[in-house]
Amino acid sequence: MVYSTLVSGTSVYSQVFGIDVDALGSAYITGSTYNGFPVKNAAQGSFGGNIDGFLTKLSADGTVQVYSTYWGGSNADIGNAVRVDASGGATVVGNTSSNDFPTVAALRSSGYYEGFVAKFNATGTVLFSSFLGGNGNDSASSVALDSAGNTYIAGTTSSNDFPTTGTRYTDSPFVVKLTGAIISIPITFATVPAGLKVTVDGLTVTTPKTFQWAPSVTHAIDVLSPQITPGLNVSSFLSWSNGDSRSQIVTTPTAATTFTANLDNQTCVYSFGQSATTFGQAGNSGYLTMNTQGGCPWTPTSNVSWISPNSYPNSGPNQIYYSVSPNTGTSSRTGTITAGGAIFTITQAFTKPTVSYGNYCCNANSGLSQTFQFVTRDDDGVSDLTITNMLINNALDGRSACYLAFDHQSKILYLVNDAGTTITGMPFDSQGRGSGVLTNSQCSVDGTKTSVQSYGTQATLNIGLTFMASFGGNKVIYFAARDKEGLNSG
Question: Is residue 63 within 8 Å of residue 92, measured between CB atoms?
Answer without folding.
Answer: no
